[in-house]
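Check these lines:
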Amino acid sequence: MLEGIFNMKRIVTDAGKPGWHNKRLKKFIGKQFGRLTIVDWDHDVYYTESRVAYWRCKCCCGNEVIVAQSSLTAGLTKSCGCLRHDVAIESHTTHGMSYTRLYRVYKSMCNRCYNPNVKRFKDYGGRGITVCDEWLDKDTGFQAFYNWAIKTGYIEPPRDVKVNDITLDRKDVNGPYSPDNCRWIGMIEQQNNRRDNHIFHIKGERLTISQVYKKYNLSPSYISDRIHYGWCDDAIIYAILHPELGLRMKNGGYVDKDGFTVLIPRS
């Protein structure tokens, strides 16, 4: 029995397919399941007493995916994943706010988390960032988000005014978009809250590069140049706190302006 299964598997995956397989192609190619249209057979997977066919499908959005036949016929898979995205940002037009800045913020938030076609999906949905159920609900999600926004101090600008200084931010950059994890902050503060920021711990303070520049009145290239040339964070901090030394890097170590070796303490 097993030998028969293995032989059949070889026949199906070879260029010369048996007659029953050709009939199967005619039956399924071109058939539509939700947003997916079957364009070709891909492969079969054999189990002890069963066979599962996998089909290459094209979604109405243009993406191609490989889906098990059983998932298609049972209605478990209806799109490449874009359907959930569309459901997530769908909102009744009765709220009358489709052209407001707040609605654009809301759609952008959902897109980043659920639409794999947007540029920054990898930084949000691609790493597990989600929108809470309260804000994601297709019927009441935007209204709930609007109520939270107004309650937390958001003011909608006139339609002819472009506002970029206030933005939606998550307190925990690894957490979801939800009422208890979101706030409105300025653009500079949001940049300081980015998860990919370089953080320095100086005298008990946790500072980003831009905050260090501002606090110690440094030139914009002071830190970036030293990072580029391989300085460790402790040496950069020591140089900032002791500018009179004229600290520089030499042969993998650090010397002062007179050429004497300087041992860098750990911060």
